[in-house]
Design goal:
The complex is a heterodimer. By secondary structure, chain A is of the alpha/beta class. Chain A folds into two domains: 135 residues, Aspartate Aminotransferase, domain 1, CATH 3.90.1150; 258 residues, Aspartate Aminotransferase, domain 2 (3-Layer(aba) Sandwich), CATH 3.40.640. Chain A contains 14 helices and 19 strands. The longest helix of chain B has 17 residues. Chain B has one domain: Sufe protein. Chain: A. By secondary structure, chain B is of the alpha+beta class. In chain B, a hairpin with a 4-residue loop joins β1 and β2. The chains are: A alpha/beta, B alpha+beta. At the A-B interface, α12 of A face α1, α2 and α3 of B.
Chain lengths: 410, 157
């Protein structure tokens, strides 16, 4: 069991008043707050060790290189990758997925091929595939969600019939950022693998909230961001199975990724350097290593239980509000709830909640196609993390009641 | 409730949100434009009928309606806009929009009794300025197009 009251002491940003009210930060699915140890690790790096990595022969460069490569090993351990070389540092989930689409996609996709996605994908796991499909002549196909409120999650009964021989790649999210559903990633990967289909898992919403073991999932690629797992912004990861990465061409050219450059031709380093052209974001990578340490001390099984329990409690309390429409599973869920009212728009709710110190997010959550399918333009989302409490859910519900009353909807 | 919030959600705005004027498609429209607010997914379509005025005079809006979905601010603003621009020509609408834009960005209204002044509270919420201007952008876009009905994406700012 996590003790959120104790954990809150680790997060300086939580201790402030917003519009005169104690901050209730429920926008964790967008970005999580940072523990002091992560902030300190970043400051310490800039204060003591800052120097460009690799190629440097002086003391600071060697310290910086050690710290950067240690962070890579730390992240590999965090997701149980077989080899640190399978960890490519990127700017975040979006860049990780774009890397796969640009590199693997351009080398392997051809007219007639199909990319299978799901209807609940974030734009970051949708638009890169639209772009590469246009360039290669491949087409997109979608595994649907079930239910008027998507309460049934993915329609797994349709999966076998959609995984036809034309499907070359299956990209799906581990946890939906607007529904809160946890997809059976291992089962989806197994079905794809049995047919020789490459799998890409979007781990943006899962990575900081539950144990993630890429070898147990048996996926080919796993993409995530540091800032949603108590790390800093600007750093993310693409995990790629070693054999896959070794067979892929570079996607960006520059320093650091070559083994030899001639005027007309170059040769590439192996992964991960092949995919890290230019000066990498080593300082933020080091801070990400500290975030991995922090989350493992809390324990990711405990985090999953804490966040999931808060989301279920919120779901239950919110369901008592008049006219509310709650999206996603009715039972176990990841640490977020997403809801809409016929009478009051999400942005008005978010503005009113802000006045009460409650930070929410309203809008389509980069899930426009899914929202359209559900007949919504957007929802309000409350998302939880290790420092949130049951009392904060009461503050949320009271704020919503006040807003509904103001608009004459309750 | 804070003064800022009561300033934002004025009675005029709540009234237009609850009972929008000129809402729905306009079968007789000869101009259509669509505005999107990509950050929140709000949408607004404006339908209007431009007809010749007196000889030698520019075309005027004889009928107008709007359709779409969005927050109270965007819906009320679009609704009020339709009541304000009816009967006006493109130059007059542009001048009115300038007045409205000044009100929502500065909070100062030259004419306190104007309905548009109800939106002065928006200036304290910079993220909501886009909501308030969405319908206006769609209307300006509709006026820009030539003789045939068009649908364009307007860039909101």
């Amino acid at each position: 069991m996590l003790d959120p009251q104790k954990i809150r002491a680790d997060f300086p940003a939580l201790h402030q008043l917003v519009h005169g009210k104690p901050l209730v930060y429920l926008d964790n699915a967008a970005t999580a707050q940072k523990p002091q140890i992560v902030i300190d690790t970043l400051s310490h790096f800039y204060e003591r060790d800052n120097s460009n990595v690799h190629r440097g022969l002086h003391a600071l460069s060697m310290r910086a290189t050690d710290a950067y490569e240690s962070a890579r090993s730390r992240v590999a351990k965090f997701i149980n990758a077989a080899d640190p070389a399978e960890i490519i540092f990127t700017r975040g989930t979006t860049e990780s997925i774009n890397l796969v689409a640009a590199s693997w996609g351009s080398a392997n996709l051809k007219p007639g091929d199909v990319i299978l996605l799901t209807e609940m994908e974030h734009h970051s796991n949708l638009v890169p595939w639209q772009l590469i499909a246009k360039r290669t002549g491949a087409t997109l196909r979608y595994l649907p969600v079930i239910g008027a409120d998507a309460e049934g999650g993915l329609d797994l009964t349709r999966l076998d019939s959609l995984l036809t021989p034309e499907v070359k790649l299956f990209a799906f999210t581990h946890v939906s950022n607007s529904l809160g559903v946890v997809n059976p990633a291992a089962e989806l990967c197994a079905k794809a693998r049995a047919r020789g289909i490459i799998t890409v898992v979007d781990g943006a919403q899962s990575i900081g909230h539950m144990p993630v073991d890429v070898r147990a999932l048996d996926c080919d690629f796993y993409a995530f961001s540091g800032h949603k797992m108590a790390g800093v912004t600007g750093i993310g990861v693409l995990y790629g199975r070693r054999a896959m990465l070794d067979a892929m061409p570079p996607w960006q050219g520059g320093g650091g990724m070559i083994s030899n450059v001639d005027f007309f031709e170059s040769r590439w380093k192996p992964a991960p350097e092949r995919f890290e052209a230019g000066t990498p974001n080593f300082a933020d990578a080091v801070a990400l290593g500290a975030a991995c340490d922090y989350l493992d001390v809390l324990g990711r099984e405990a985090i999953a239980q804490h966040d999931g329990a808060l989301a279920c409690l919120a779901f239950e309390k919110l369901s008592e509000l008049p006219g509310i429409r709650l999206l996603g599973p009715r039972g176990a869920r990841s640490g977020l709830v997403s809801f809409a009212f016929a009478e009051v728009h999400a942005h008005d709710i978010v503005t009113f909640a802000d006045e009460d110190g409650v930070a929410l997010r309203g809008g389509h959550h980069c899930n426009q196609p899914l929202m359209r399918k559900l007949g919504l333009t957007g929802t309000t989302r409350a998302s939880f993390y290790v420092y949130n409490t049951a009392e904060e859910i009461d503050v949320l519900v009271a704020s919503l009641r006040r807003t509904l009353k103001f608009f004459g909807a309750a | 409730m804070s003064a800022d919030l009561t300033d934002l959600y004025q009675q005029v705005i709540l009234d237009h949100n609850k009972r929008p004027r000129n809402r729905g498609k306009l079968p007789t429209a000869n101009r259509v434009a669509h505005g999107d607010n990509p950050t929140c997914g709000d949408q607004c379509s404006v339908y209007l009928r431009l007809a010749p005025g007196l000889p030698g005079q520019p075309n005027r809006i004889t009928e107008i309606s709007f359709d779409g979905s969005g927050c109270a601010i965007s819906q009320a603003s679009a609704s009020l806009m339709t009541t304000k621009v009816k009967g006006k020509n493109a130059a007059e609408v542009a001048a009115l929009y300038k007045e409205f834009h000044d009100i929502v960005t500065t909070g100062n209204s030259p004419d306190e009794v104007s309905d548009l002044a109800a939106f002065a509270g928006v200036h304290a919420f910079p993220a909501r300025i886009k909501c308030a201007t969405l319908g206006w952008h769609a209307a300006l876009e509709a006026l820009k197009s030539d003789s045939l009905p068009t649908t364009t994406e307007s860039h909101t700012d």
